UniProtKB/TrEMBL annotation:
It comes from Hymenoscyphus albidus. This is Lysine-specific metallo-endopeptidase domain-containing protein. Keywords: Signal. Residues 1-18 form the signal peptide. The keyword Signal applies.
Length: 354
């Protein structure tokens, strides 16, 4: 298997991609769909790589002496608190606790693996990897026979899946790609059985402003969709924000390079290894439902910071390691360490998704 050697730490070079990020070409790695015409995908890839390298630098600093941190290190400590369930260090503390350092080493290893894979034109051969910026084919469905070969015609997905669910499982969203008959059902951590309302059936999953931001098939062929909604919503570039200071709501900082890191981590797909980075769920802070742990608020809640006031969000700290957007949020915060990131008040960054 082509990916097996990535499991051997000896093969991890850490700072791969010694080449200038501006020389990176997305079409060396992906077959680019014509739906991406006019998008600067090379620039996007280059910025993502710069953010990944910066995140690795930040994590390396956090694994060293943290006493009397300068402004930059203080920003990285804040990012690690928000994303990786690191407790606020005491003023006299020289180093983070061993358990927290181990978690940060795992995070760094994953960023390094991603960097390595992006550098390996054998792994990223364009014939196995596709990138789209729009799709009108992907749509939501509530009919089981559209996604399961053995489902009786006319049966709803809810009726088909319901009896097959193990106790305590939750499943959300089912969608279909008519060309490839792919489907995906997300498994959640909570006790509820969640299905999208029937009213969504037939709606576009990627291709209209009201549909998904992005999604990734992690099976061969691997496909990443960066949907029109994302291009409309997020900052196309993050490179101007390096020295920004002051308090900013996180959602104003959401950016396409960070979103690409999120999707690349799904795409990395080390399955069937011990590790796959997905989208974890948290309990919505104001409503009685599970939502994907997106954005600052999602990463923060997944880190257990509200566990005392809301025991439902008392997640094991290692859950953060398998949540794609925690990496996006960390890379974004670590890239602008002088800024004071704040959650948006409405928690609007918390939505269902892939
Ligand atoms: Zn995701």
């Amino acid at each position: 298997m082509r990916i097996s050697h990535f499991l051997l730490p000896i093969c991890l070079t850490g700072f791969a991609l010694g080449a200038n990020p501006s020389d990176l070409k997305m079409n060396d790695r992906f077959t680019i769909s014509p739906t991406c015409n006019g998008r600067d995908l090379d620039g996007l890839l280059a910025e993502s790589v710069v953010m990944i390298k910066n995140a690795i630098t930040a994590l390396t600093a956090l694994l060293g002496n943290i006493r009397a941190p300068n402004d930059e290190l203080q920003g990285w400590i804040r990012a690690a608190q928000a994303c990786w369930a690191i407790p606020k260090p005491e003023w006299y503390q020289q180093e983070l606790a061993p358990v927290d350092k181990n978690r940060l080493r795992m995070v760094r290893r994953n960023f390094e693996m991603l960097l390595d894979v992006l550098d390996d034109l054998d792994y990223t051969t364009p014939s196995d990897n596709f990138m789209y910026c729009h799709s009108t084919d992907l749509r939501l469905t509530n009919m089981a026979d559209e996604v399961f070969d053995d489902a009786p015609k006319g049966q709803s997905i809810k009726d088909y899946i319901g009896p097959r669910l193990p106790d305590g499982a939750s499943k959300e969203w089912v969608w279909v790609d008519p060309n490839n008959h792919h489907h995906r059902i997300l498994e959640g951590d909570g006790p509820s059985k969640l299905f999208f309302p029937d009213g969504y059936a037939g709606g576009q999953l990627c291709g209209s402003p009201s549909s998904m931001d992005a999604l990734t098939y992690y099976k061969i062929p691997k496909k990443i969709f960066l949907c029109p909604n994302a291009w409309a919503k997020f900052r196309p570039s993050n490179s101007q924000n390096r020295q920004d200071k002051g308090r900013k709501l996180y959602y104003e900082w959401q950016n396409m390079p960070g979103l690409l890191i999120h999707e690349l981590l799904h795409w990395l797909a080390l399955m069937p290894s011990e590790f796959h980075i997905g989208d974890r769920n948290v309990w919505h802070p104001k409503e009685d439902r599970l939502v994907a742990a997106y954005g600052y608020v999602g990463a923060f809640l997944l880190s257990g910071h509200r566990a005392r006031t809301d025991p439902r969000n008392n997640w094991p700290p290692d859950f953060t390691l398998t949540n794609a957007d925690s990496y996006n949020v960390f890379a974004t915060m670590a890239y602008s360490p002088l800024a004071l990131f704040a959650p948006d008040d409405t928690a609007s960054g918390l939505e269902f998704g892939f």
